């Protein structure tokens, strides 16, 4: 299975003690996957539980969206995965402008601003 930056996949995400299936945005560069065989992704949710750590994702921000629901990229929920962790490929990906906004929010949320 080939994994690409900006792809949206269904994955078993650890949000507590057990994995839960969630969509996720692959945020790591393709070279990490090509070299190491793993990738980093952040959780997508329909709930905005931690508004300081999220950025809204609207269907128009996605190439080939699967539905018309708004959601949230949960930028502090960054985890490492392997291809066998992917439950399904959605065929969707985040558009470049939206992805850059997500990367900026991850930077601010996890590492702070300088």
Question: What's this, in brief?
Answer:
With about 110 residues, this protein is an alpha+beta fold. About 20% of the residues lie in helices and about 45% in strands. It has one domain (about 5-110): Roll (SH3 type barrels), CATH 2.30.30.110.
Helix/strand layout:
Blueprint: E1 7-14, E2 19-26, H1 30-36, E3 39-45, E4 54-57, E5 62-63, E6 71-81, E7 86-94, H2 96-111
Antiparallel strand pairs: 1-2, 1-7, 2-3, 3-6, 4-6, 5-7
Kindly report how far apart the N and C termini lie.
37 Å
CATH architecture title: Roll
What is the radius of gyration computed over CA atoms, rounded to a whole number of angstroms? 13 Å
Instruction: State the total count of DSSP E strands.
Output: 7
Structural class: alpha+beta
Largest sheet: 7 strands, antiparallel
User: Helix fraction?
Assistant: 10-25%
Mind telling me the CATH class?
A: Mainly Beta
Overall tally of structural domains? 1
β-strand amount: 35-45%
Coarse shape: globular
Total number of helices: 2
Q: Report low-confidence residues grouped into runs of 5 or more.
A: none
CATH topology: SH3 type barrels
The SSE order reads EEHEEEEEH
* Strand line-up in the sheet with most strands: 4-6-3-2-1-7-5
Mean pLDDT: 93
